Amino acid sequence: MDGVLANFNKAAAPIYGLEYPTEPTVMDYNWVFHETRRKYGKILSHPDFIDVLRNRPEFWDNMEFYWWAKRIAIQLTASQIEWYVLTHCIDDAFCPWGKHHSLKRNLGEEVIKRTFMTFGPKYPVCRPGDVLIDDADKNCVAWRQAGGIAFNWVDYTENHPNAGPQVEKLFSFLQEHNCIG
What we know:
Layout: H1 8-12, H2 31-40, H3 46-55, H4 57-61, H5 69-79, E1 85-88, H6 94-107, H7 109-112, E2 115-118, E3 131-134, H8 137-145, E4 149-152, H9 163-176
Parallel strand pairs: 1-2, 3-4
């Protein structure tokens, strides 16, 4: 969810006093951790990171979903195939609530019925032929090793010139694997 559908880094940046890039760029899904280390000389500890998510519901309220998120959800729903949002939660009880809240607010009730949260790797739920769209290469590799098919999403900022073409590549990929018509 965080790199493919929603802009986690943009929502987290102001909480940590970071400047989210205004220039088109490719984001690393660990951008917040790298930038806090660069700015403060230390990496965020797990408890410090968790406290922000637990104590600031506005973080989840302010999380923007990318312009392509609704289009992907609409296309997959129209295809009438089984599809789900498979998202990793950090080890905190508040994280699933926050992700659920953001998905419902941005993509609607139908998507909530299709959401699964994991607290570990994603590949154990893979069945042969299942398709994963993920921004973490390690998840795509493990998914393929488990018999699935994976599309490695590049986490472009919404204003990056490659963002639109990547969405089109995704739809071609999904058509090629009979996920959408």
